[in-house]
Amino acid sequence: MNSINGLNSQLKRSMCLEWLKMHSIDVALIQETHFKHIDKHKLANRYYHTAVAACYNSKSCGVLIVLKVMMLINDFCLIDLYRIMNPSLRKYSFYSNRHQTYSRIDYFRIPNKQNS
Predict the structure, then answer these.
(1) How far apart, in whole angstroms, are the C-alpha atoms of residue 110 and residue 116?
(2) Separation CA 108–CA 116 (nearest Å)
(3) 90 versus 29: which is more confidently predicted?
(4) Coil, strand, or helix at residue 94?
């Protein structure tokens, strides 16, 4: 992929994440994100997660290390502790007033002793 030259547009972020998925990228080192510190986790979806970010105070510079979510879970044999303890309970830790949606933003992944 050529220079990102900023990922502040939702369309650019979506295209970047789709490109990563289409090419089966496990680890992506992305530069020139132009993210501010508060925006560093905007490049994420159900397939990819921002693991490390270095941002600047203005919308310039910036680098990210993005990892494939399933790589993290499978390669390190991690399980969701909350889901193990509460397999059928539907509770959420965050409510978005703006979007009127509930979601879980607190995942506690622990090593699966049976598989390690």
Answers:
(1) 11
(2) 17
(3) 29
(4) strand
